[in-house]
TrEMBL record:
Keyword DNA damage (UniProt): no
Top-level taxon in the UniProt lineage: Bacteria
Binding site for ATP: P89, V90, A91, S92, G93, I94, G95, G96, G97, S98, A99
NCBIfam families: ispE, PRK14608.1
Pathway participation: Isoprenoid biosynthesis; isopentenyl diphosphate biosynthesis via DXP pathway; isopentenyl diphosphate from 1-deoxy-D-xylulose 5-phosphate: step 3/6
Single GO MF annotation: kinase activity
Entry function: Catalyzes the phosphorylation of the position 2 hydroxy group of 4-diphosphocytidyl-2C-methyl-D-erythritol.
Name this protein carries in UniProt: 4-diphosphocytidyl-2-C-methyl-D-erythritol kinase
Amino acid sequence: MTEAFARAKINLTLHVTGQRPDGYHLLDSLVVFADVGDRVRAEPAEALSLAITGPQAANLPVADDNLVLRAARTLGGQGARLTLEKHLPVASGIGGGSADAAAALVVLARLWQVPLPDPAAVLKLGADVPVCLEGRAVRMAGVGEILTPLAAPLPDGWLVLANPGVSVPTPPVFKALARRDNPPMPDDLPGWPSVEAMAAFLAAQRNDLEPPAIALAPEIARTRAALAAQPGCLLARMSGSGATCFGLFAAEEAARAAAGAIGAEQPGWWVAPARMVG
Ligand code: C5P
């Protein structure tokens, strides 16, 4: 049996800087990971099969187009018994499906003793699959295929992830954008000596998908506000195309207290404190 952890991907910034002729949007995004995620396991078997378990399994019926199965087919026609232990909310802006696909590629390449697919095939699975396969903090550009590692290590920090239980499909959010030619981040990303310094930098950046996502799902604004109101929250913003928002914290205790307070106020929300990793 072989297993991989599919970490949540967080867009600390997401600038939409243009659009390709095929409709995909050009992005400039600072991506980090949160130390919470799904697990993908693979065991030898004659045929290819997938079972989904875990607290979010009910929101993800097993279907032939599941990204884990699509990832498996990208690697070839062999068999395996796959299990996806689903913890991350589905279609929620933190790359759950993409992280699962990347983890499936890793476990099956190991099980079948085959190389990972070429970058174009990885990108075809989803624009966030390359960054999830990379699995560390990067500046992400193009439609998701240009990944530049950061010049300096990330400062130690904590995230609180909160999702109000609305799933927001990505295409309508991109469609509802007012502008597609927004300015990128500064050319050179500075290193940040502390998470406070990083938050000050991030405050001057944006997630351009936030306004259209909030127009489609107003709960997102309430989620972001609930995070921003917590003691110790340095910055609150939506990740990806939503609806999950993150709060950035310096201290573990403050992050855990904030997650506890929001969870108590909003029992229907998915709330998770997590170390920021890169
Ligand atoms: O590639 P992925 O399946 O994650 O993208 C879902 C949808 O989001 C795409 O079909 C496209 O409509 C939109 N998208 C985009 N530009 C990107 C990534 C996604 O327009 N860079």
